[in-house]
From TrEMBL:
<protein>
    <submittedName>
        <fullName>NAD(P)/FAD-dependent oxidoreductase</fullName>
    </submittedName>
</protein>
<dbReference type="GO" id="GO:0016491">
    <property type="term" value="F:oxidoreductase activity"/>
</dbReference>
<dbReference type="InterPro" id="IPR050464">
    <property type="entry name" value="Zeta_carotene_desat/Oxidored"/>
</dbReference>
<feature type="domain" description="Amine oxidase">
    <location>
        <begin position="12"/>
        <end position="366"/>
    </location>
</feature>
<dbReference type="Pfam" id="PF01593">
    <property type="entry name" value="Amino_oxidase"/>
</dbReference>
<dbReference type="InterPro" id="IPR036188">
    <property type="entry name" value="FAD/NAD-bd_sf"/>
</dbReference>
<dbReference type="InterPro" id="IPR002937">
    <property type="entry name" value="Amino_oxidase"/>
</dbReference>
């Protein structure tokens, strides 16, 4: 008789886990609370095509993602293109793609530039993240990259991304972030990947493959109660039905999972309660004209209402969207910050005028439409020695397993890293995962 697995959460971690388990001969069902599977992979129609709620791209070294795309037979849809990056600082947009661009970055002295290059190279290529969990990014950067370098570049970027937690972000996180970016560069040139038709292409192909493998996909299914007997999870109740038997893998955010074990396992609840999440908002501008020629602009300006402008159609041609030009205004936020309770209209009224400060030629009359997408669980709040708070895949309740965004630390959230977490969770559960190639992702290293 086949082993049985019930997966709670139909985002990429849950769906990738379902695929791995089904290939291992498991009878699998996936329960998703919302009407749609995909989680942060979801898309909306624009210009005769589809676009992600939250910007996505792939790296050339995303081995696990490339494996899944090939397994699904959609590798002919994957394209890699050269991209450009910039930094806005002190009223000026600076290109930031090569050593020569760094030399022309006037906010830094020649000594600052040398220290920036040396420290970035060390963190991205040589440093071991395990050695730098107990020191904050800012503390280390002030000491080694220098005060001016840190205040001109790193501090504004960390402030806008982490808000009140900026002083406590461990250097281990920055090591993971820089390693991810540097490994995507070849002689200073960066190529990024994208799927023609958006991540909807991946989601549809994966869903079809799961159906072919007889995986049961059940949406509108909110888990309301766990049935635990003698320390063992024997079943769960949803808004639709009761399910029992086999193992249970929870891929939902920890703040939802903890509520399900409250009153059942106090130790597990306390462990899960240590995890907090950042929210995120993307204001997507549908434009008649591009803002610039830059794909990714980091805004290193104190007081900016967003941390970056990502001009999607400087990556994927506007012709793919009936000649519309698309730009994301991106912002992470703590739930303590006022933006977390602002309406979409208030956020638009704050963000859109600021674009004019960066790009002087921007005219709001060039906006065809504005779309706003938000999530309460965009990334985990990682503070010093965060690995101590990363719970094991195997929980203290027998038959209950947990794999989610927490396990991506110290790496950065991505589709590839979610697949790596799925592979590690399935391996720990006793499945065969040797058919999944392992790249240089740092995800899934903690919790096994």
């Amino acid at each position: 008789m086949n082993k049985q697995l019930t997966i709670v959460g139909g985002g990429i971690t849950g769906l990738a886990s379902a695929y791995i388990a089904a290939r291992n001969g498991y009878k699998v069902r996936v329960l998703e609370a919302s009407p749609h599977f995909g989680g942060l992979l979801n898309t909306f129609p624009i210009g005769g095509n589809r676009l992600e709620y939250f910007y996505h791209h792939f790296f050339t070294h995303d081995v696990e993602l490339n494996w899944l795309i090939k397994e699904l037979g959609i590798d002919n849809k994957l394209v890699y293109k050269k991209t450009t990056m910039g930094v806005f600082r002190d009223g000026t947009v600076y290109p930031f793609n090569s050593p020569s661009d760094l030399l022309h970055f006037s906010p830094l002295t020649l000594l600052d530039k040398g220290r920036f290059a040396a420290t970035s190279l060390y963190l991205g290529k040589l440093a071991r993240w395990e050695d730098y969990e107990s020191i904050s990014c800012l503390e280390w950067l002030y000491r080694y990259a220098g005060v001016n370098t840190t205040n001109s570049l790193w501090k504004p970027l960390l402030d806008i991304k982490f808000g009140p937690y900026a002083n406590d972000v461990p250097l281990a996180w920055l090591i993971g972030r820089l390693r991810q970016r540097m490994n995507s560069r070849n002689r200073g040139e960066e190529k990024l990947g994208y799927l023609q038709g958006s991540l909807d292409t991946l989601l549809n192909a994966l869903m079809e493959k799961l159906k072919c493998l007889s995986v049961e996909l059940i949406n509108h299914s909110v888990v309301t109660n766990l049935q635990v007997s003698e320390g063992k999870l024997v079943g769960l109740q949803t808004s639709k039905a009761t399910y029992s038997g086999g193992d249970y893998l929870f891929t939902i955010p920890t703040n939802y999972a903890k509520e399900l074990v409250k009153g059942i396992d106090s130790h597990l609840y306390q462990q899960l309660d240590k995890i907090e999440y950042f929210g995120a908002v993307c204001v997507i501008l549908d434009l008649k004209k591009p803002l610039s020629q830059t794909y990714w602009l980091n805004v290193a300006d104190s007081g900016s209402p967003f941390g970056g402008i990502i001009e999607h159609t400087n990556f994927i041609p506007s012709q793919d969207y009936n000649n519309k030009y698309i730009a994301y205004l991106s912002r992470y936020y703590s739930h303590q910050e006022s933006i977390s309770s602002q309406s979409n209209e208030e956020i638009i009224a704050t963000m859109v005028p600021y674009v004019k400060k960066i790009y002087k030629t921007f005219n709001p009359e060039n906006i065809n439409d504005i779309h706003v997408f938000r999530t309460k669980t965009a990334a985990t709040v990682c503070d010093l020695n965060f690995s101590r708070n990363v719970h094991s895949f195997k929980s203290s309740i027998q038959n209950m397993w947990i794999a989610n965004m927490v396990h991506i630390y110290p790496d950065e959230r991505s589709v590839n890293n979610a697949i790596r977490v799925s592979a590690e969770a399935c391996r720990v559960m006793g499945m065969q995962t040797s058919f999944i190639p392992a790249g240089n992702s740092l995800s899934g290293k903690i919790g096994g």
